[in-house]
Amino acid sequence: MAGLCGRMALNVARRNVSYTPVRFCKMMNDPLEHATGIEKRELLAKQAGNDNPFDMKVFKRGAGTKESPNLIPSAFDARLVGCICEEDQTFVQWMWLYQGTPKRCECGHWFKLVEKAPV
User: Fold this and answer.
1) I want to staple 113 with a disulfide (CB 3.0 to 4.6 A). Which of 18, 49, 65, 97 is the partner?
2) For domain 59-118, which architecture applies?
């Protein structure tokens, strides 16, 4: 058995393996060259320095009074917004905001949709 394994290892070692250097010198193209549509717009916005082009990150709530509500940017007439009313709360209170009408959450904070240019 040992002789058989030794002969197989010797045969494998004798095989000449050649690689073309051109095959391994190619680098992947830039993802921006292959992207299209909304993905390309997102990559261009990130390249320009806007790491949150769709405003998907969490906003910190401000005072949220009726006179100065928390401003939520949107490129549309309506947006679904979630409010974590208490610090230790384990669920999100969801509500729809519509352009031009401020809305009050159950916790008492006010939110208002403001217009933002689309990506």
Assistant:
1) 97
2) Sandwich (2.60)
